[in-house]
Design goal:
Blueprint (H helix, E strand, L loop, with lengths): L6 H12 L3 H8 L3 H8 L7 H10 L8 H9 L6 H13 L3 H11 L4 H15 L3 H14 L6 H14 L4 H11 L8 H17 L3 H27 L13 H18 L3 H12 L9 H24 L6 H9 L6 H18 L4 H6 L1 H6 L9 H24 L3 H18 L2 H13 L6 H22 L7
């Protein structure tokens, strides 16, 4: 919106048109008459709160004058941070990202504002205002790109977290961009960053990168764990940084992910050795309730994965024990069940095992997987959707080869949709290949759904690439 007059001029016109004097305007706006007088007469600069009150009196939505306010009051040679800070918070609340970008561009000519903007970005990030936070993190990162500071690395970590989404190609680019900054983070933040990177690489099935990342995480976690217990012998400071989880958990989780790498390569014997390693946590020195909780979780995961590795290596005799074990916890989480059922279906398809009774047992849970809840946890956000897509494919494969075409095509359609959302070309090609292999069993409805989906994906890719989709 282009304004040809000042905010004060528009206010003056409004007062004259509506017969308002300073006292009535102040009463309506909730401001004292003296304050209104100095604002109207130009002896005082509007604060953003005062501007909001006056804007409401004039019948405009909050933020109506924000762009004009920036031009008139916030672009001084020496910007007033006391006015700018609340303005930024209001812009984030109203999703006025263009105003935040303009303010950041103005301020970042002076490195003095780098720390101030970073602190505001941290508040936005904690409040879930990620789009607003990303603008400030980007601006700070650009201004400090030659400083090699911890703040620069933390900006890149936050941007990595914000940029991770459904598209696995973009996730890979985000991970590769962030990876060089990990070593510049605080030693504690490095552990969480490496864990997040490992989970993203795991969802991408980039096993060499998973292995390299978790080896580094294990080494650093062992050092921090040793330092932590040396400080316990002395007086420990209360303001020390803490990881998101207990320190010993990063060591155990590294073994868990190393087992996943071996499993992906078909080396089930080595996977079992890593699994036995994180099952035995007798070396952990803490005895508090939180530690006991995490130790029980690792031991549960170890027992599950012992069954899994034996099952996937061809020991079908453990299947019934595996099923009973995963059914035992009454508070079973959805993300655990996705993984466990995927393991069952991979074994069923690999060794031609009839698992109809198992699928019937988990029918309700499988149908609920399509309605996954969002999460900020990188494992739940990245690994579980990837495993859900694979589970859909394995279910489709199982039912189609059993001649149960209706249910098989249903799961295959869902897997194809998920593969497209993830932008995972391998999964998409596999799903398409399975569709084509069973094309002779299409009913008109399935054929139409398949054709519509393929055309939708084609047009989306055409749009992304800028290619022509029609001829004149």
């Amino acid at each position: 919106m282009n304004h040809t007059t000042t905010i004060r001029a528009e206010l003056d016109t409004y007062m004259k048109t509506n017969g308002l004097n300073i006292t009535r305007l102040g009463r309506t706006a909730g401001l004292n008459a003296g304050t209104v007088s100095t604002l109207v007469n130009g002896n005082r600069t509007f604060s953003v709160d005062q501007l909001d009150r006056i804007t409401a009196v004039m019948g405009h939505p909050r933020g109506h004058y924000y762009k004009q306010y920036m031009q008139e009051y916030l672009t001084d040679i020496t910007p007033n941070w006391r006015r700018i800070r609340p303005f930024l918070y209001n812009c984030a609340e109203l999703d006025k990202l263009d105003c935040i970008q303009q303010m950041a561009d103005l301020l970042m000519d002076n490195l003095v504002y780098s720390v101030l903007l970073f602190n505001v970005a941290e508040d936005f990030f904690k409040d879930g205002k990620h789009a607003a936070a990303a603008i400030l993190y980007e601006s700070v990162a650009i201004s400090e790109r030659k400083q090699y500071s911890e703040r620069l690395a933390l900006c890149q970590y936050r941007l990595f977290t914000i940029n991770i989404g459904d598209d696995q190609n973009q996730n890979f680019e985000a991970a590769c961009h962030f990876h060089p900054f990990v070593e510049r983070l605080d030693e504690i933040d490095q552990l969480d960053a490496l864990k997040d990177l490992a989970n993203v690489y795991r969802s991408l099935r980039q096993w060499a990168k998973v292995d390299k990342t978790v080896q580094k995480m294990r080494d650093k976690a062992k050092i921090q764990y040793s330092l932590d217990h040396r400080q316990h012998k002395r007086k420990k400071r209360g303001n020390e940084r803490k990881t998101r989880g207990p320190l010993f958990g990063y060591i155990a989780y590294a073994d868990l992910l190393c087992a996943s790498v071996c499993e992906a390569h078909g080396d089930y014997e080595q996977a079992l050795q890593y699994t036995y390693a994180y099952a035995d946590l007798s070396w952990v020195k803490e005895t508090d309730e939180d530690t006991r909780h995490w130790m029980e979780l690792f031991q549960h995961w170890a027992q599950v994965n012992i069954y899994v590795n034996k099952l996937l290596s061809g020991d079908v005799s453990v299947l019934s024990d595996y099923v009973e074990y995963i059914c035992a916890p009454p508070d079973k989480s959805e993300k655990e069940l996705v993984t466990e059922l995927l393991n069952i279906m991979m074994a069923a398809n690999r060794y031609q095992i009839d698992v109809d009774d198992i699928l019937q047992r988990f029918e309700t849970e499988i149908d609920s997987f399509a309605h996954q809840q969002s999460s900020t946890d990188m494992y739940t956000q990245q690994v579980i959707p990837e495993q859900f897509a694979r589970l859909g494919y394995e279910l489709a494969y199982y039912y189609l080869y059993k001649g149960m075409y209706s249910v098989g095509f249903k799961y295959l359609r869902d897997a194809l949709v998920k593969a497209n959302i993830l932008n995972n070309k391998i999964y998409f090609i596999n799903c398409t290949g399975l569709f084509e292999h069973f094309r002779m069993y299409f009913v008109p409805e399935i054929h139409a759904q398949y054709q519509n989906l393929i055309e939708k994906v084609w047009l989306e890719n055409v749009k992304k690439s800028g290619s022509s989709s029609s001829r004149n």
